[in-house]
UniProtKB/TrEMBL annotation:
Keyword terms, alphabetized: Decarboxylase, Lyase, Magnesium, Metal-binding, Thiamine pyrophosphate
Species per Swiss-Prot/TrEMBL record: Jatropha curcas
Protein name (database record): pyruvate decarboxylase
Positions of the Thiamine pyrophosphate enzyme N-terminal TPP-binding domain: 26-88
GO molecular function, one term: pyruvate decarboxylase activity
Reaction it catalyzes: a 2-oxocarboxylate + H(+) = an aldehyde + CO2
Subunit comment: Homotetramer.
Length: 248
């Protein structure tokens, strides 16, 4: 399906952000996917139900690729919940949670905001989960609350606090020793770069290892772009029977 794409300059640019408006939900979802790959995290905003169901496919793709994407959906008015009304942009049923159930399978956290009292806490929790788990999250905000002021919304952002990851140094030491023993006995070892390098933020460490040991380097299709392919020891793409001829 064809669509029109345009870019809109906004005040968000003063915060180091750029608002890109797209007239089709799939475009918005895949743009957020690409932005997350390039910049670390992406976000997209769509309409209730019609937009949410349309963007489900790129969000599912981001989930499978371990990409932190924040999917924000404009929900029904806060006073429509529990009213048993049949609204526009729905499947003709007084059930406002069909969309939520779809997103539960492809996001690591979901938040329904129909009351401003705990909105900031809910949003911060969703954003933290997104960044900690490197997975998409779903945030539905009642459309009548979007521009409503609240004392908890302050102009200056509050930094998010993440739990530190603790490494078992003894287990790591034993793992390194066991790996080194296997590699030192191998005749023609090859380092294969996989997509989890992005999640672990280990691309530079992988390149340092490759440079130090001089082993040949191959890359899996899902890891394309994570490792430069112009390195002297790069030998191609590993993909089972469809691999580059000398990578199979």
């Amino acid at each position: 399906m064809a669509s029109t794409t345009y870019h809109k300059a906004s005040s968000s640019q003063t915060l180091g952000q750029h608002l890109a408006c797209r007239l089709f939900q799939l475009n918005a979802g895949y743009a957020a996917d690409g932005y997350a790959r390039a910049r670390g995290v992406g976000a997209c905003v769509v309409t209730f139900r019609v937009g949410g169901l349309s963007i489900l496919n790129p969000i599912a793709g981001a989930y499978s690729e371990d990409l932190p994407v924040i999917c924000i959906v404009g929900g029904p008015n806060s006073n429509d919940y529990g009213s048993n009304r049949i609204l526009h942009h729905t499947l003709g049923l007084p059930d406002f949670f069909q969309e939520l159930r779809c997103f539960q399978a492809v996001t690591c956290h979901q938040a329904i905001i129909n009351d401003l009292q705990y909105a900031q806490e809910q949003i911060d929790k969703a954003n933290t989960k997104c960044l900690e788990e490197s997975k998409p999250v779903y945030i539905s905000i009642s459309c009548n609350l979007a521009t409503t002021p609240h004392p908890s919304f302050i102009p200056d952002p509050i930094p998010l606090i993440f739990s530190s990851k603790i490494s078992n140094h003894m287990a790591l030491k034993l793992a390194v020793e066991a790996t080194a023993e296997i590699l030192n006995k191998a005749r023609n070892p090859v380092l294969v770069a996989g997509p989890r390098l992005r999640v672990a933020k280990a691309c530079n460490a992988f390149l340092q290892l490759a440079d130090s040991c001089g082993y040949a380097i191959s890359v899996m299709p899902a890891a394309k772009g994570l490792v430069p392919e112009n390195l002297p020891n790069f030998i191609g793409t590993y993909w089972g029977a469809a691999s580059t001829s000398f990578c199979a």
